[in-house]
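Page 37, continued from 36.
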């Protein structure tokens, strides 16, 4: 059955792979599932046809026959649940990998997003400069904890899993701030994720799309 996902028509990151379709592309590549990408403009995302797929008018979405999903975490979990390679067979190891997927989205991503919001949407406010160190320190607090847990392991819990896929995807968004590089083991962890052939295929495809669309950046 054909799988179709949606992505930005013109990604604001110019193809750096930071939009959330990249994590879905990566999961599909890891699972060996062929898929098509439908590109949507910011305006089209808010129109009824797209809102019927995604109530919040965002990307990514996932269509597989009659099944329509939104939320990158739910989509990655759906792919990982039905195809080998992204979740361990052992029930306890599987539950732990899923825990890391949630931790990436619910515990690590929020302060990283807050930093992006503080820079992009609030950077011109008079109070922004005073607030920024607090926002950055909240990112550092999380990354320090994650760094301590990871230690010198390759992946968060044994073999590479959907939990690592999501954590690497989330951490990538902290790299432009320079904060990721303050934690060499996390930086190396992200590099291991980026070195996976499936990630490279996902990254290169979204970059090709961005170049074809003439995205800025
Ligand atoms: N919780 C949802 C999920 O995980 O799927 C969040 C989805 C979401 O935020 N989608 C964004 C979107 O559609 C794109 S990824 N925004 C348009 C809108 O809300 O109108 C967020 C994103 C955007 C841009 C960059 N960038 O330029 O670096 C990175 C990430």
């Amino acid at each position: 059955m054909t799988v179709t996902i949606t992505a930005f028509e013109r990604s604001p990151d110019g193809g750096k792979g930071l939009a959330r379709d990249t994590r879905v592309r990566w999961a599909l590549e890891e699972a060996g599932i062929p898929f098509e990408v439908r590109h949507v403009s910011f305006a089209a995302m808010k129109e009824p046809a797209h809102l019927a797929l995604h109530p919040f008018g965002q990307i990514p979405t996932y269509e597989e026959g009659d099944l329509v999903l939104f939320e990158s975490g739910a989509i990655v979990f759906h792919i990982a649940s039905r195809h080998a390679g992204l979740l361990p067979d052992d029930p306890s190891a599987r539950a732990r990998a899923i825990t890391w997927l949630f931790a990436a989205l619910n515990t690590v991503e929020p302060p990283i997003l807050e930093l992006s919001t503080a820079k992009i949407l609030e950077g011109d406010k008079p109070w922004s400069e005073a607030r920024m160190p607090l926002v950055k320190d909240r990112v550092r607090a999380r990354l320090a904890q994650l760094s301590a847990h990871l230690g010198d392991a390759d992946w968060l819990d044994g073999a590479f899993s959907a939990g690592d896929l999501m954590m690497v995807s989330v951490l990538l968004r902290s790299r432009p701030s320079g904060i990721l590089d303050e934690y060499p083991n996390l930086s190396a962890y992200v590099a291991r994720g980026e070195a996976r052939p499936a990630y490279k295929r996902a990254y290169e495809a979204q970059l090709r799309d961005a170049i074809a669309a003439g995205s800025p950046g």
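Residues 12-13, 18-20, 42, 45, 57-60, 71-73 surround S-(P-nitrobenzyl)glutathione (CB under 6 Å). Flag for discussion at group meeting. The chain has nine helices and four strands.
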